[in-house]
Amino acid sequence: MNILHMKYAVEVAKAGSINRASEALLVAQPNLSRSIKELEADLGVTIFDRSAKGMVLTEEGERFVGYAKKILAQIDEVETMYKAGGPAKRQFSVCVPRASYIADAFARFSGGIGEEPAEIFYKETNSKSVLDSVLHSESRLGIIRYAENYDKYFKAVFEEKGLNFELVAEFRYVLAMHKGSPLNKKREIHYPDLRAYIEIAHADPFVPTPALSEVKKEELPDGISRRIFVFERASQFEILSENPDTFMWVSPVPDELLERYGLVQRECQDNRKCYKDVLIYRKGYHLTELDSLFVTELCSSKRRYIQ
Predict the structure, then answer these.
(1) Could you tell me if residue 9 is left (phi over 0), alpha (psi between -120 and 50 degrees) or otherwise beta?
(2) Please, how many CA atoms are within 13 Å of residue 147, restricted to the half-sphere of its CB?
């Protein structure tokens, strides 16, 4: 496979047409078109669908271009390192569920990065995106969250996909709410008590395999007529801090964060479901110094906030 052809494919995907890509690359259109066809023939896949509207990536093409971008970036990094004569930037990337104890660990980890060049990537998302990110080498580490009853399924997936996996934490969700919420005045909280309130919920499901309707039915208790779905974690806390009629299911939250937003966390007596957070990374991958530092802080944060 020709590296130059790989660069051409990435540029065509970016430009959306042979014409615009040829102008950006300063390569004649016939030569560029021929190079793309040779690349597809070498790989045995169709990277682009051709139409009057331009060049559109196929599903295989999207996968290929994703890999190509990472390969080209690594080539650029190696060239920069040796041409400049300086050290390469240290790399750290992790994809995680939205969890305050993990965010706390990452914040403490950031204090130990040091003064050497480094590029750090931290992404909060759902389990499907975490799995895809690690499998496609977009993130070196991932933390997947799932209900305990999915344990056998996920372990089988990890083995099939060639992933190492280590349990980080087991916990039950608690309720986060405004200090002045009427719910907080109750001695005990049960599912029926939540029906009069607005639930703040993640806008994407935790479990990647079943249909979304099935996931929602399992993950979200019945009887709640009002829900606000939000992607960004800080926005969720802002809403909770402003509206005493809202609540949210969360993994255990650090006391400092609760105090910052004027919130409390309470157990629901009816909630018995257990969840797991599991660290994953590709087999054969050796943890770097930064990886090990993050895992150390992660374990420390788990011990502080999850009993």
Answers:
(1) alpha
(2) 16
Which of 135, 166, 106 lies closest to 301, judged by CA?
A: 106
Tokens of 82: 């040796």
- φ/ψ of 46, rounded to 5, equals -100, 115
H or E element at residue 200: strand 198-202
Residue 306's Cβ-side half-sphere holds a number of Cα atoms within 13 Å equal to 25
**Residue environment code for 181-205, b if the CB has 16+ CB neighbours within 10 A, otherwise e:** bebbeeeebeeebbeebbbbbbebb
What pTM value is reported for the model? 0.68
Instruction: Return the ∠ at Cα 89 (arms to 88 and 91), rounded to 5°.
Output: 125
How far apart are alpha carbons 213 and 194 in whole angstroms?
21
Ramachandran quadrant class, 2 (left: phi over 0; alpha: psi -120 to 50; beta: rest): beta
The gap between the terminal CA atoms of the chain, to the nearest Å, is 52
The mean pLDDT value for 100-129 works out to 91
CA-CA distance, 220 to 223, in Å (whole number)? 9
The per-residue pLDDT for 228 is: 87
